[in-house]
């Protein structure tokens, strides 16, 4: 007999959080009531492969996790949203689903951002989540493939699937202990192929540029794309505020392509980056943007990295605009502009989806769009750094001391009961070698 209270408790104790990037604690999602649980298997960030790998290797586990989430939420329907190009995985999933009541596969086109929760919910249910609301407002809970896999294996989250792509000798996807550095993983992949390697952590569209490869893998990591520092995408993503504001002000011709292709605008949300760009031209101090058409931007980067024919930065203008409005106390909840969103999807939405193949070309990643097959490593690191902030909510506080021995799966950081967050666990056996407000470091037993 399924015990919801126990499942929710265990999900918190095991430190299960959204593994797709957001890190929202899973126990909160499964403590709610919903009619549909959606598996987000769209994996639309170019070059990342970890969700495809998990579904190829452990389809049964992901479906088990989905069934648990459905039971916990009282949901009668489970939908796995995956791109139709993954034919083999889909045929396996469909085979398994034949004997599962209420679970189906939604085959989606290969466009970006199919994995955006708002887009996925619309594709799967035909319902539009209102601006500023969450999937639960339309009766849905959305969960990443790896999150559900973690729910099914029901033990502390100590390992992570990640893809190392781009300019490494042998791009690959692997399962490794949380807290391992990206540098070690790049070495596992044969090392860098470029002179000045930098990486995008989390995918070319929404990921952040990192130059320090000693940074550790966390529960929300999906992988890195290694590029040379001179790659146009890196230059584009590291453009500073003074630079993008001045280029934006001088070159925007108000063609409005940024708005016309914006996935949230196409869902009827009142986000209009071209108007935000117009405001930046009027800003007398050249740094502040006060324009409420920025508020509903989900930061998908499509406008800056794909839609704008001039290569300008409407996304960054929206981000600045949101921050400037926050200072004035204006937000999605009290904005009349946000409230004026239509409840109607744009009639041309279907024809304005961005094909991932075209996006990859535009990003200058065509040559690097290669397979990153799974390698079974059983990787034994000498040291791991367990970050105390690996989830949305309150960061964990270390509960171990230097010199203390720990076993894989032991709790090394806790979040007070009643606060949003989860504990973090040791990912290897070893001895605590450093503790501070940011991380707990463990030296492996075989170091
Ligand atoms: S930012 Fe680019 S796409 Fe948007 S209106 Fe200006 S020129 Fe057009
Ligand atoms: S980043 Fe651009 S395209 Fe994406 S939601 Fe924001 S305004 Fe729209």
Feature tags:
4-stranded parallel beta sheet; 4 domains; alpha/beta; single chain; Rossmann fold; 19 strands; 32% helix; globular; binds iron/sulfur cluster
General description of the model:
Strand 6 and strand 7 form a beta hairpin. The radius of gyration is 22 Å and the shape is globular. The strands form 5 sheets. A 6-stranded mixed β-sheet has the order 9-8-10-6-7-12, with helices on both faces. Strands 3-2-1-5 form a 4-stranded parallel β-sheet, sandwiched between helices. The protein has helices at residues 4-13, 26-30, 50-57, 59-73, 87-97, 117-125, 145-153, 182-188, 232-237, 241-251, 257-260, 263-266, 273-282, 302-307, 314-327, 336-339, 356-363, and strands spanning 36-41, 77-83, 103-108, 111-112, 140-144, 159-166, 172-177, 197-201, 208-210, 223-228, 354-355, 374-375, 383-387, 397-398, 405-406, 411-414, 424-425, 430-435, 439-444. The chain is an alpha/beta fold and 447 residues long. It folds into 4 domains: 4-153, 3-Layer(aba) Sandwich (Rossmann fold); 158-231 and 364-379, Roll (Ubiquitin-like (UB roll)), CATH 3.10.20.600; 241-358, no CATH class; 383-447, RNA polymerase II/Efflux pump adaptor protein, barrel-sandwich hybrid domain (OB fold (Dihydrolipoamide Acetyltransferase, E2P), Beta Barrel). It binds iron/sulfur cluster (2 copies). One iron/sulfur cluster (SF4) binds next to helix 14 and helix 15.
């Amino acid at each position: 007999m399924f015990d919801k209270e126990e499942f929710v408790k265990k999900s918190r104790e095991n430190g299960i959080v959204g593994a797709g990037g957001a890190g929202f604690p899973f126990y909160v999602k499964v403590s709610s009531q919903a009619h549909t649980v959606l598996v987000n298997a769209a994996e639309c960030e170019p070059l990342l492969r970890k969700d495809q790998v998990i579904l190829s290797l452990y389809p049964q586990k992901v479906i088990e996790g989905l069934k648990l989430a459905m039971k916990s939420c009282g949901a009668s329907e489970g939908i796995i949203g995956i791109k139709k190009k993954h034919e083999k995985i889909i045929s396996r999933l469909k085979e398994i689903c034949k004997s599962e009541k209420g679970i189906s596969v939604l085959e989606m086109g290969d466009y970006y951002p199919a994995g955006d929760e708002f887009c996925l919910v619309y594709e799967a249910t035909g319902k539009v989540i209102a601006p500023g609301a969450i999937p639960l407002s339309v009766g849905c809970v959305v969960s990443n493939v790896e999150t559900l896999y973690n729910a099914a294996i029901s033990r502390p989250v100590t390992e992570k699937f990640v893809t190392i792509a781009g300019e490494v000798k042998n791009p690959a996807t692997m399962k490794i202990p949380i807290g391992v550095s990206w540098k070690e993983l790049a070495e596992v992949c044969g090392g860098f192929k470029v002179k000045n390697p930098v990486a995008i952590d989390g995918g070319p569209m929404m990921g952040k540029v990192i130059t320090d490869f000693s940074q550790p893998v966390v529960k929300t990591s999906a992988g890195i794309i290694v590029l040379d520092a001179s790659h146009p995408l890196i230059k584009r993503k590291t453009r500073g505020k003074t630079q993008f504001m001045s280029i934006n002000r001088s070159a925007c011709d108000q063609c409005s392509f940024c708005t016309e292709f914006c996935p949230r605008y196409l869902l009827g949300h009142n986000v209009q980056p071209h108007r935000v760009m117009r405001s930046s031209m009027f800003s007398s101090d050249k740094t502040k943007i006060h324009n409420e058409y920025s508020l509903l931007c989900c930061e998908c980067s499509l406008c800056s990295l794909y839609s704008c024919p001039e290569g300008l930065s409407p996304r960054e203008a929206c981000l600045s605009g949101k921050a400037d409005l926050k200072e004035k106390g204006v937000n999605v909840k009290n904005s009349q502009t946000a409230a004026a969103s239509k409840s109607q999807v744009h009639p041309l939405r279907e024809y304005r989806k961005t094909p991932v193949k075209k996006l990859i070309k535009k990003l200058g990643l065509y040559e690097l769009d290669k397979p990153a097959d799974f390698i079974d490593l059983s990787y034994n690191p000498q040291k791991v750094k367990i970050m105390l902030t690996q989830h949305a909510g309150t960061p964990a506080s270390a509960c171990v001391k230097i010199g203390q021995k720990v076993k894989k799966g032991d709790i090394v950081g806790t979040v007070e009961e009643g606060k949003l967050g989860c504990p973090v666990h040791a990912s290897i056996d070893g001895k605590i070698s450093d503790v501070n407000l940011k991380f707990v470091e463990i030296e492996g037993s075989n170091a």
